[in-house]
Every structure is written in structure tokens, then in C-alpha cells.
Amino acid sequence: MQRLNWRKAVVACAGVLLPLPLVLLLGGLLKLDVPVSAPPGERVSPMLTAEQRLRLVTYGRACGPGKACEPPLGCLFDVRYARSTCSDSQCWGDDQCPEGQSCQGVATWGDGPLVRVCVPLGPRQEGEGCVPLPRDKANACAPGLVCGGRTEGWCARPCRLGDTRGCSEGFFCADTIPRPLCLPTCEARGCPAGQQCIRFDEGVSVCAQVYGPHCLQTPCTDGRKCDVNYAPPYPDKVWMECVEPCGENLPPCGARKVCDGWHCLTACEPQGPQVCGEGYHCSRRGEDRPFSCQPIYWDETMAY
User: Fold this and answer.
1) 38 and 58 in one domain?
2) 150 vs 178: CA distance, rounded Å
3) Which end of the chain is more exposed for a tag (fewer CB within 10 A), N or C?
4) pTM score of the predicted model
5) What is the distance between the alpha carbons of residues 219 and 43, in angstroms, rounded to a whole number?
6) Calpha distance 144→166 (Å, rounded)
7) 261 is in which domain, residue-wise?
8) Are 172 and 203 in contact (CB under 8 A)?
């Protein structure tokens, strides 16, 4: 039995009831083109026409918890602009992107569909950190790789769950976003001298030199949280800190420390004595912020 396409059925019924111009408009609005390269089973936001976008109240608006997007839009966080907006896909394939960019599906907030956008191609290799929509290609993956992961971003190759031979040695197939990917692990093979196997979420672990107190080995005291950070331009380094919160309704920072970014950091002077440890330098997050010992990757975060 031949199955009737529901969009064609709606347009056919509308043809009996509506004038011709409205029928043509309705037909155009119901035709949602889905990228042909979307893997089977994945929900992907289509590329909408200008008319279709105008009919969606939430298109282009801020989104997130409590601010959902209308289907078929996805709530896309774009680190380039530090905001989340309701968006449709912007491309189908690489031929619709500028030179040096690739059309890839990016995960959206909640259970939303993937949104395909043009992302830069960069130098980051398989297993290295990345940013899904970076401002600078220094934080982008090399061709053939996808920047994925639920909490951190890792350059990875797609894989099939259950296929034990689908990933190279030192990688495992993880059920992650935007799709199953080969994520790195160093727990079985060990690390070179001077580096340690550092664990992240989703079972990921990478070899890296540790700057700051190794609070994963020696837990923080006084109820402080161990914060582990990395930056894509420094693939073999991590920074650890026992976070000492500060700010409104919290105790002031101790001697030789300043409150910056809601936590206490070691105070310093750019032209003063060297008080910052290895992997840190004396800097500040803005003209109105105090000087403090910041990880050397901080300047790169402004280019994410």
C-alpha cells in the first residue's frame, strides 16, 4: 500500500479550501529541507526560508532553561557571542561554507535537535581539547574530526556503539554528543615521563603535566572543590585549583589574595616580585579587575 506523505496531504486539503496564493505559501512553509548528510536516527534542525523563520515566534531569541524553542529550532550556544539563541541549520554540506570551514552538526540545549553550522577547521588532533564553535581556529579540530563531548570538548572520530574495533588504540567508543565518538583514554597505556593520566567526565583520561596543586590525588581541605581546567592550545597541560569562593555574603580572601571571578586568587603586580608559580602569569581579566596569578591559557580563552 502506498503511504501518503502528510505534508502533501495537508497541502492537497488546503487547495480545496484556500485561494491559490495561500496554498502556495502553505506549501512552502511545510517544506522543511533536512540536510541530506544527517546520519540515520539523528534529529537535525532543517534549513528554513526567511518566510518560515518569520512565522516562528522564538526564532533568534534567547533560550535555555525555562525558555524553550519552537520545533524544529534548537537552542544553540555560540561561544563566539557568549549567548544561546533559537536557531535552524545554516548549511547542508561543506560546499555551503567558506574556505577553511566545514558544515557540522552541533548539539543544542536539552533534548533539542542538532543544528548544522559552518565551523572552522583547525590544528587540534584526535584526542585533544576543542571548542565546538570557536572564534579562533586554534581551538578547532583538524579535518575529518568532530568536536564532541557532554561536558568537555574533544576532537574525535565517529564510531558505532558496541564495535570494539571501531576506535584506535588509546580510544573508546562513547555514547556522547553530538553522536557516538572515539574519546581518549590513557589508563591502560600510561603516560610519558613528567605527565600524569588525568581523568575527566564520561570516562575520558588524557596525559598531561599538572600545574597547581594536584587536588585529584590530594583532596582539597575545608570543603573546597577541586577544579580541573584545560585549554585546547595546550593539549598536554592541565591546571588544578582548590577553589576558595568569595564575593557577596562570603568571607573575605586571606592575606596576599584578591577576589576575582568569585574565587580567591594570589595577588600580584606585573612589575613586582615573581609570586606566580609555573604555568601562571600576572594578569587580570579586565581593566576594572585586580591583578592576580592567572593560568597562562587565560589569554587564549578570550579567543574561544
Assistant:
1) yes
2) 8
3) N
4) 0.77
5) 42
6) 15
7) 245-304
8) yes
Cα angle at 244 between 242 and 245, to 5 degrees? 135
The sign of the dihedral angle between the CA atoms of 7, 8, 14, 20 is positive
Residue with cell 484556500: 18
Q: Within this chain, do residues 43 and 27 fall inside the same structural domain, yes or no?
A: no
The tally of domains found in the chain comes to 3
Domain boundary among 120, 152, 171: 120
Radius of gyration of the chain (CA): 24
Rounded Cα gap, residues 146 and 102, in angstroms = 10
Of 214, 208, 217, nearest to 238 by C-alpha is 208
Q: Is residue 283 part of a domain?
A: yes
Contact 290, 263 (CB under 8 A): no
pLDDT in tens, 252-272: 999 999 998 889 999 999 999
Hey, what's the cell of 107? 548539539
**Phi-psi region at 215: left, alpha or beta (left = phi > 0; alpha = psi -120 to 50):** alpha
pLDDT, tens only, 140-178: 999 999 999 998 999 999 999 988 789 999 999 999 999
For the ranges 72-86, 212-226, 271-285, 290-304, the lowest mean pLDDT is seen at 290-304
| Pairwise CA distance, residues 289 & 36, whole Å | 49
Say yes or no: 89 and 38 in one domain: yes
- In this structure, are 84 and 14 located in the same domain? no
- Which of 74, 92, 120 is the C-terminal boundary of a domain? 120
Residue 228 lies inside a defined structural domain of this protein? no
- Furthest-apart CA atoms within the chain: distance in Å: 83
